[in-house]
């Protein structure tokens, strides 16, 4: 891969997405004006009033935990890693990040303070002490170590195995920097930290015969009690006072003890809890999030009637507003809600895909909108406002591919059940269905795997759709106002068809397959004109705008140029360090963009084959890239469910 002399970083202008699976992933800053949350390998800090964003980019894999200090000075995050690789903990300058956000320079940098390496496989939890002097980090299942760090110096002070079984969460007390609490599989421990020694000492809580997996924890403002949510749906209450570190022969006089638990269980477990002080009574109530519901629990561990909210997905984050007027809730389906304490009505503040995104398309000649395809739905987005405008849902199915008619009158989509569905873009209502267009194999997400709409005038039917499937067939369909019929069915591919593109006048189409071939078709006769062969799994094919060449990419990490006259290879360039998954080209053919399994977006000079710009931010393989029609931005989508909007250099 050759870089141009003036190769630049692509400017990440905005992202649409939120990893709702991260416990406690959606949080307020202590000033109350911003929220922060993970998306793949980056952290997004968002101004609540203006909607401006800033991005923290240094992690090499998915962010697994996140927290901010109470003085609004630091932000810490941990990540996952593979095998025995050490998982990084990052300490960030939150004030500089907020400044970047307000000044409209989201990727300006200058925010990373420390990169801490200790845990293997995964960082399970991070938390700052009340005075932000110390940071605790908890390793995942393969590590399970608890470490206390000096925040200013960036060095480890002391540590210990967290428990005999897996520890899942950890919190400092709210008013002292020498005591913290961890909980997990069948245990809760209160730790005393002696910085001067240095050493750390754990004391197990007395639980009697109670055996529960505790997956979240919250501590009252006076540090008297801790509340834990369990996998079986209860909320447990613990008194967490304990003796300081004593000599070996001295008996324990004060031990942490379980005081009670809720009698009513929440479905599928409690994944998030938060303590709330009632200003009128001074009592501490508890918010608990279960599967699709948030309930209020009083100090006697009874559910308060009339104080509950319904949301979409399991509640994984609860963050109380510093003003005390309401709270944010994040769910496993990547929805972000704001709930007011008075009304307890859930207001949807942010939405995005919660699974892998398979395709993205701009309507022809329109840069303000784009469409994405994912599991169970198609969504239409406003590119300028970064807002969802329309959601088209088809339960229990996966949309593999999408396209739009030239006039924008229909969204045409291919699904894992083998059907082609067309929808009205204004209402999302079904326009027509072509049943059994391709063989369905739901487990392999096959069905209709690629399609394109010919450049026919769809306002004056008939017009045509060309589709490809996991069965290797390429089919051409005629669409009229009253019916849809198959014109041609071609079976020459021996593997899944991954991409189809049509020329300007609709007389030719090229299909790219996993069998290592690209076939050029005569769409009028349904016959093969030419074929391109390479020892690779072809993932994408496109025409150069003047139709003199084809451009392909695939699993051999290469991008290939082909002569459209005789199908001969003209040039092969190295695309990156992993499988090349997607291509798109500008209208004048001067530049093209690529996405790949190495998680990078690249902009290339077509004639020189040199990289002009590189964008990094995805934590999973990039599935598709698309230029906006005005060529000011690139939209990329990936396996982590994020939508990244890049500015061209």
TrEMBL record:
InterPro entries the UniProt entry points to: Quinoprotein_ADH-like_sf, WD40/YVTN_repeat-like_dom_sf, WD40_PAC1, WD40_repeat_CS, WD40_repeat_dom_sf, WD40_rpt, WD_repeat_EMAP
Keyword S-adenosyl-L-methionine attached: no
Keyword Endoplasmic reticulum listed: no
Broad class of the protein's primary localization: other
Origin: domain of life: Eukaryota
PROSITE patterns assigned to the protein according to its UniProt record, in alphabetical order: WD_REPEATS_1, WD_REPEATS_2, WD_REPEATS_REGION
Entry's localization field: Cell projection, Cilium, Flagellum; Cytoplasm
Alphabetized SMART domains for the sequence: WD40
Keywords: Cell projection, Cilium, Cytoplasm, Flagellum, Repeat, WD repeat
Cellular-component GO terms for this entry: axoneme; motile cilium
Alphabetical list of Pfam families matching this protein: WD40 (PF00400)
WD repeat copies, ranges: 465-487, 490-531, 573-609, 615-649
The family this protein is said to belong to: Belongs to the CFAP52 family.
PANTHER family linked: CILIA- AND FLAGELLA-ASSOCIATED PROTEIN 52 (PTHR13720:SF14), WD-40 REPEAT PROTEIN (PTHR13720)
Protein name: Cilia- and flagella-associated protein 52
